[in-house]
Sequence to fold (249 residues):
Amino acid sequence: MLGAADGVIAYSEEVAADLKRRGISSDKVFVSCNTLDVATIARQVDGVSLAKMEEARNELGIGGGQLVLYLGRLVKEKHPFLLLDAAHLAQMKGHPFHVAFIGDGPLASELTEMKSRLGLRTVKLLGHLPMEDVAVYLKLADVVCVPGITGLALVHAFAAGRPYLTCDVGGHGPEIGYLRDGENGQMVPKASAEDLARALTLLLSDDTRRRRMGGRARTFALEECSMEQQVNGFINAIRSVSGDMRLRT
Fold:
């Protein structure tokens, strides 16, 4: 099907490069970064009041602690249990952090049971929330972390100016191509609770590095992942293919 297509839209530069390696002609490949309305997300996060943040902080029982935010479906491919194990290990080693899960899915009840079994009072499962409520937790978060397969949660994090941390599990969505390891986020080479706990602990302990990564994340989102750029990528592909089809007829 790829070989027969007049044009192929790739959702990242990395996907485009892979298509070309597979023998698809360069003039048939068009890049249109998969994204969200990053400008609106950024405005919503910036517009969260101190009162709203304090209300959410009290709800989560954070006090002066730090927050790791999970955004996405509660499914095995995203490895939410790995984040719980990492939080437990960090707590046992005297480096506790809070975790908030936003999203629903088939693993919700198992995660709730595991949280209780491990005695993780610093973990909250908030379920599915509307975007205006998600913005509050994005602003409150220090890091966004989905240990497993990454998708548009990365774009959410970047638009909010938060570094994104995940693990090298294979099978990530094309959005993983936006992550610049050590610059706007971090890829943990091994998907283990020990390695994830260590990476999160180190990142949370370095305010300067974390804020620098968050600033670069937002800049990347606003400059490289705008809705206008995504739409223009589709328009360029359609116009090019339409022109070629007219020439052939």
Remarks:
- The longest strand covers residues 67-71.
- The radius of gyration is 20 Å.
- Strands lie at 8-10, 29-31, 67-71, 98-102, 123-127, 143-145, 164-167, 185-188.
